[in-house]
From TrEMBL:
This is Methyltransferase type 11 domain-containing protein. InterPro entries: Methyltransf_11, SAM-dependent_MTases_sf. Residues 64-149 form the Methyltransferase type domain. One of its GO terms (molecular function) is S-adenosylmethionine-dependent methyltransferase activity. It comes from the Bacteria.
Length: 264
């Protein structure tokens, strides 16, 4: 494999350091791959997209996970030659020990036309120069290769202060076309009703906790426990109804986010 620690580097560019490797894969501090549709609808849609991507790639495919974080999706690509890169500044609580490379995504340490596929999920919103990053991903992608991308459209601020953008389908198409991709397919992640279902748990999180906190009984919380249980059941029922109603939103122009498959 033509992986070079110096390829793509220019004078004065940020120094690229290989990530520290541990003898065995470290435990993920935030394994969101098994999260339910009811708990985090947006993440569930992204996970489903990534699973479909992994199933579509033949054995031995060289794939770059750009903005891999803790490499939570590595397990889906055991049949591929999986390489991960991240700047490792998103979440302080994350364990970045799984990373193959620590580097800025707009200045990757790889030769031109290295990878047959690139995965980049929920990353562009955290980059101050997303257009330059997509151009760089295009550079390291082989002709005929595909970029698999997801971005949010409806999401609160997160990984602050590294949170800069939300995207429309037109903005994504502009970014991909400018980078040089000649085939760009964009699909919504859910619709208007799914978006409402996603927001219900956010509202419920405003209720006080119940039970025991730090070894002390929270009497106020215990008193509210029956109400919380009732509300929880009502929330699940409401979410289920909204998920079912989403099929009637044919426009799908107000989704949680977007998935993109761009071919070089």
């Amino acid at each position: 494999m033509p992986f070079s620690d110096n390829a793509g580097q220019t004078a004065g560019s940020p120094k690229v350091l290989p990530a520290c490797k541990e003898p065995s894969a470290p435990k993920l501090n935030d394994d969101f791959t098994s999260i339910s549709k009811f708990k985090d609808t947006g993440r569930w849609y992204v996970n489903s997209f990534v699973k479909l991507v992994s199933e579509s790639l033949p054995p031995g495919t060289t794939i770059l996970d750009a903005g891999a974080g803790e490499c939570a999706y590595k397990k889906y690509f055991s049949h591929c030659w999986y390489v991960s890169v991240d700047l490792a500044i998103g979440e302080e609580s994350w364990n970045y020990g799984n990373l193959d490379y620590i580097a800025p995504l707009d200045n990757l340490p790889f030769a031109d036309k290295t990878f047959e596929a690139i995965l980049c999920t929920e990353v562009l919103e955290h980059l101050e120069q997303p257009r330059e990053t997509v151009k760089e991903l295009f550079r390291v992608l082989k002709p005929g290769g595909k970029l698999f991308l997801t971005v949010p459209m409806a999401h609160g601020e997160h990984q602050v202060p590294h949170d800069f953008f939300r995207y429309t389908s037109y903005g994504l198409r502009s970014i991909c076309s400018e980078a040089g991709f000649n085939e760009v397919a964009i699909a919504p992640l859910g619709g208007m009703f799914t978006r409402w279902a996603y927001e219900i748990p956010l509202i419920m999180s405003l209720f006080p906790g119940a039970g025991i906190r730090s070894g002390k009984i929270n009497l106020k919380g215990l008193a509210l426990l029956p109400l919380r249980l009732l509300c929880s059941a009502a929330v699940r029922a409401a979410q289920g109804l909204l998920f079912a109603l989403d099929r009637f939103d044919r426009a799908k122009n107000f989704p949680l986010g977007w998935s993109v498959i761009a071919k070089k």
